[in-house]
Specification:
The complex is a heterodimer. By secondary structure, chain A is α+β, with helices and mostly antiparallel strands. Helix content of chain A is about 45%, strand content about 10%. Chain B has a five-stranded mixed β-sheet, sandwiched between helices. The chains are: A alpha+beta, B alpha/beta.
Chain lengths: ~160, ~425
């Protein structure tokens, strides 16, 4: 399954080791969510090779890591653009204007949710509750950076800033 | 106001300080003193649990289960590993209070987890943090490092001979992991599918060891209770509903945000604090406790006080204290369509009634919203709901039904109008 050329950097492996150290020695699998996150951050997405590599590194079956990667929606199992924008459209954000922001994002980028611009610069995703509703509408940039109080103007500025 | 003086703010009092999150602010205002005293006096666990029982602290994550009682289930003398787990997997639409605790008062949560760990005989604790608030996962890890360097975590804490450590663990996009046994599965590095109960986590939890799982706000309340006593906490609220509580208010109000107020405060007072319904509009409906709580029409809600018992009496639940406010411009069909999609999307797929039923409910509400509803649809929705409720391993099934049944019950006319006229009665 695993192609020999797949490799994570020494920095990524050091980060994974730090995560593994949080759990009892015989429970390395507990670090799989972090390890997949670290692999994705380095490679941009999770290929089957990446998942198998992480599983092997943690001493767990590849299928078990694959189950995790497919269960949680912040893992990308297909390549995404350099900037993945995940917009929350759930009810509190919707009440606070997420529909307008969604329309604007799609019109401006010329793509729908789940799509990537042809130049590979942006991917647009629809997200579920991010747990910061009072500051909505909200989006995440590449999973980890939250942008709040979005309006069509604020979105324009954000997109321009993301190369 | 500080931790030294009883105040109606238990968790977010640091907001009155310039550097709310810093260890210096926390310790200068009595932080870690409760832990210090417990370790110095070797306070018996029974005494700590007794104070928590007196406080009438009820779980702040949604279920409202008495915390002292939950702690008493833990087999403290069981030889071998035991764990304390904090649930910061805050993904219930409308809920955003635990994020603010991590941002503004991370050390009080650490102290709360330490006291819980000491009381329950745990060897370590984990805080499971919603993946979407990754910045707070990172900042809480920095707070842990500060605490470790100051001698509050690790080996021989404060010279007491007691070893204990805490770690952060992040989710990565799965609402279901807020369910405590799904959370444990996830913490073990698996799909977050809830476990069949019994056995309950107190006997078979993380790695099969006795485990207690509490919400972030619950654990953050513990140091306050230990400093001021259970009775003082109880008196902040009302009988059977001890303490103040953070209410997250969102939707159509002028100042959405978190408001930490005594349990039993009238809803109308919270609405006023949040600047009232957005300018020039009229209150239509409120979801009082996160998206899983049944919706209440404006007039019912305006008569409620914000505590577990009052909201339950009105036919809904206080849940996580997430108050979603809707004004007269809201189409209830569209609002329900979005919520139904959420539960369909987030069902873990383990139990047939939930996996299939949430999809059926979403598709029916979706067709009503898009002018393709059928006259029999409303009864069908309720029938499907009745076949999900109580027939699943975890509460997500019931949570998905709550909005559907209550929206149809209270706003049936609006749904019927949609079906007959193929359009919305709100806003043309």
């Amino acid at each position: 399954m695993q192609t020999p050329e797949f490799q994570l950097s020494a920095e990524a492996l050091a980060q994974i080791d730090q995560e593994v150290a949080k759990y009892p020695a015989e429970q390395k699998q507990s670090a799989v969510m972090s390890a997949l996150r670290i692999a994705q951050a380095e490679k941009g997405w999770l290929s089957k090779d990446a998942i198998a590599y992480v599983a092997d590194y943690l001493g767990m079956p590849a299928i078990a890591a694959y189950e995790v990667a497919t269960f949680y929606n912040m893992y990308d199992l297909e390549p995404v653009g350099r900037n993945k924008i995940t917009l929350c459209t759930n009810l509190p954000c919707q009440l606070q204007g997420a529909d307008k922001v969604a329309e604007h994002l799609q019109a401006r980028l010329g793509i729908g949710f789940g799509e990537t611009t042809p130049d590979g610069r942006y991917t647009l995703k629809e997200g579920e509750c991010m747990g910061a509703c009072g500051h909505g509408p909200l989006c995440l940039h590449n999973n980890h950076k939250m942008h709040a109080h979005l309006t069509p103007d604020a979105v324009d500025k954000l997109l321009d800033d993301l190369k | 106001m500080s931790l030294n003086t009883p105040t109606d703010k238990v968790c977010l009092w640091t907001l009155d300080h310039d550097q709310p999150a810093s260890l210096a602010t926390y310790t200068a205002n009595g932080g870690y003193e409760a832990l210090r005293k417990i370790l110095a006096e070797k306070t018996p666990a029974e005494q700590i649990i007794e104070q928590v029982k007196i406080s009438a602290l009820r779980g702040r994550g949604g279920a409202g289960f008495p915390t002292g009682l939950k702690w008493s289930f833990m087999p403290r003398s069981f030889p071998g590993d035991k764990y304390i787990v904090c649930n910061t997997d805050e993904g219930e639409p409308g809920t955003f209070k635990d994020r603010d605790i991590l941002i503004y008062n991370p050390h009080q949560l650490i102290e709360g987890m330490l006291i819980a760990g000491y009381t329950l005989g745990a060897r370590a604790g984990y805080n499971y943090i919603h993946g979407e608030i990754f910045e707070q996962y990172q900042s809480w890890e920095r707070a842990l490092q500060e605490a470790r360097e100051a001698g509050f975590l690790g080996k021989d804490i404060l010279g007491s001979g007691w070893d204990f450590d805490l770690h952060a663990h992040h989710g990565y996009g799965a609402y279901i992991c807020g369910e405590e046994t799904a959370l444990l599965e996830s913490l073990e590095g698996k799909k977050g599918q809830p476990r069949f109960k019994p056995p309950f986590p107190a006997s078979f939890g993380l790695y099969g060891k006795p485990t207690t799982i509490n919400n972030t706000e619950t654990l953050t309340s513990i140091p306050w209770i230990m400093r001021h006593g259970g009775q003082a906490f109880l008196e902040l609220g009302k009988p059977n509903n001890g303490g103040s509580k953070i209410f997250s208010i969102s939707g159509h109000v002028n100042k959405p945000g978190n408001y930490e107020i005594p349990l039993g405060t009238p809803f109308s007072a919270l609405l006023e604090m949040a600047g009232g319904v957005r300018n020039g509009h009229k209150l239509k409906a409120v979801i009082p406790g996160g998206s899983s709580a049944p919706v209440l029409p404006a007039d019912v809600m305006m008569d409620c006080t914000l505590d577990f018992d009052s909201i339950a009496k009105a036919g809904s639940m206080l849940g996580s204290g997430a108050v979603i406010v809707m004004d007269e411009t809201v189409c209830m069909v569209k609002a329900l369509e979005r919520l139904s999609y959420f539960y369909f999307e987030e069902s873990c797929g383990q139990c047939t009634p939930c996996r299939e039923g949430t999809g059926w409910m979403y598709r029916i509400v979706n067709r009503i919203e898009h002018g393709k509803g059928r006259p029999e649809d409303l009864d069908e929705l309720v029938r499907i709901g009745n076949n999900i409720g109580g027939r699943t391993i975890c509460a997500l099934g019931d949570a998905a039904v709550g909005p559907v049944v209550s929206f149809v019950k209270h706003f049936r006319q609006e749904f019927e109008y949609h079906i007959e006229n193929k359009r919305c009665m709100v806003g043309g």
